């Protein structure tokens, strides 16, 4: 691929790609009318899109360190925004977020605010300065700013703990979707997912991941928005749902007070399959205390600003100026999906619980609902369940249970959309999970290959050897992640949230103070990273093993405690030890202005 | 005060304003979530609900672009802006 030429032609290339993808959807729709089976459509969607990503990955192969680690630093602002959005929006955002909103309402929507507000911190506190630094990885910044192998190594440890927690969840999600779409057992599907992920990143490193992520963003955003608009129009709820669902939201509130939230007995609930939940919380009313909401949002925002796979995307822009704008574009592309999730949750819930709609099941007889096609399908997939607890023969609000994933996966079918949409949604979910997994695996492998192998173990290694090490690590880390994912230890969403908490515990203050506080020194940074990570981990283990916690900090927000310890440790230790030398202070001064060469470029 | 110190002082000022706006939309308004939700807001949604779905999210997007433009102006003012995408 000729880079210069290729960059200029990006809008055209991705324009053709988008057109081609829409064409593919239309062909599938026609094939469905002509009798193609649902299963064949599902396989076609997943196989076709994965093939395209693999092709892009192959075309982006490279033997240069600059291209492998930072995509040659020439990714234009808007495209980097798309790539970051795909990098960011994981399988959890795509598949589980609307479900979380559906079940938990306001308390859960703190995640929407947190996962977007964090970008303000990224843009204003970190991204432009780290771009000026000219590093390849996040530990590269820590290692050079604070100096010394121990600081560098501590950053690698925090990065690995946080990203690895995250990546198992993503491989798990690719496995789930591949197993549903291809109809194979989960244990094998996980490895198929992994191979698809590695195909994108192995040959081209960051360059390959960048261009596949742009392609994946296009697939996932079409797959998310098309059903939302279609369902809204089909239900007559409004042609632009985001501005027109106020009546529907109000109607759900009405129905909630009409039905009431009846608490099921523990014995009844024990008969419900694991992982399914009923509607027990108000849809749009404020159902959480201010601190519960704010602490979760705050943890996610600080976590966002410390997650290395996001930060390293801004190392690929051509300039500092472009890095700042690029954060804005990233958030804009994320906004498109996040602002649609509550709309999907609203449409999904209303179509199920409103007795006046043909799709509504509350108030219908148990036997009638059990005879519905989609109920049978999703019941079989273990994502839907009804049971006549009170024995009156009709389905009540408290007698209907659903898995969180069903909101995204099943709503098109419930609303009576053709199967081609369900196939599209599967491809979208796969794209979301793959793109995030790619970013994460690359972040870990790059940190270990660049910071541990090249900078600490063998500083004289040749480029070719470094890239071989980087690729071997990529495969090893991928397989380790897949093996853990195959064991199915935690749910997808729980481990995603933990990853944010780990990252903020160890990295938030060492990164931010590295730019904004000249007095911060090596000893302080090491104390901050290791102390924060240890404190956060201790709190998590303590709460998980029956500890009561304090200040309302839960196992989902343990990063608030971890980062507080990190801040105190870093400031106290920094002030107790010698201030950084003149050269380091001068380096910080230079980081603060955009003009001139990058810091590392000078050395 | 050197040129660079002035530049940094202004940048820090911009950061404070940006973080203050960020604080309002991410934390401030949710201190009054329950009260605010009683009032009908944009497009007929309850105010707090609207902020969590769209309002705060959109505010962050606008805030970042505004910040990026202001910071560029500051860089230009003190002669620290980059030469056109070298």
Explained architecture:
The complex is a heterodimer of chains A (603) and B (86). With 603 residues, chain A is mainly α. Chain A has a domain at 3-244 and 284-340 and 423-499: Sodium/glucose cotransporter (Up-down Bundle). Chain A is built from 28 helices and three strands. Chain A has helices at 3-8, 10-33, 38-59, 65-70, 77-88, 91-104, 106-133, 138-146, 149-182, 186-201, 205-234, 241-244, 246-259, 266-269, 290-304, 308-311, 320-338, 341-353, 366-370, 373-380, 406-414, 419-457, 463-486, 492-516, 522-544, 558-576, 582-591, 599-602; strands spanning 276-277, 384-386, 400-403. A three-stranded antiparallel sheet of chain A has the order 1-3-2. The longest helix of chain A has 39 residues, at 419-457. The two termini of chain A are 30 Å apart. Chain B is mainly alpha-helical. Chain B has one domain. Chain B has three helices and no strands. Chain B has helices at 3-26, 33-36, 47-77. Chain B is elongated. The model of chain B has no long low-confidence stretch (mean pLDDT 87).
In percent terms, what proportion of residues of chain A is strand?
A: under 5%
Beta-strand proportion of chain B: under 5%
Low-confidence stretches of chain B: none
Largest sheet composition of chain A: 3 strands, antiparallel
Features:
heterodimer, A: 603 residues, mainly alpha, Sodium/glucose cotransporter, three-stranded antiparallel sheet, 28 helices, 73% helix, B: 86 residues
Concise description?
The complex is a heterodimer of chains A (603) and B (86). With 603 residues, chain A is mostly helical. Chain A contains 28 helices and three strands.
What's the helix and strand layout?
The complex is a heterodimer of chains A (603) and B (86).
Chain A: H1 3-8, H2 10-33, H3 38-59, H4 65-70, H5 77-88, H6 91-104, H7 106-133, H8 138-146, H9 149-182, H10 186-201, H11 205-234, H12 241-244, H13 246-259, H14 266-269, E1 276-277, H15 290-304, H16 308-311, H17 320-338, H18 341-353, H19 366-370, H20 373-380, E2 384-386, E3 400-403, H21 406-414, H22 419-457, H23 463-486, H24 492-516, H25 522-544, H26 558-576, H27 582-591, H28 599-602
Chain B: H1 3-26, H2 33-36, H3 47-77
Helix pairs in contact in B: 1-3
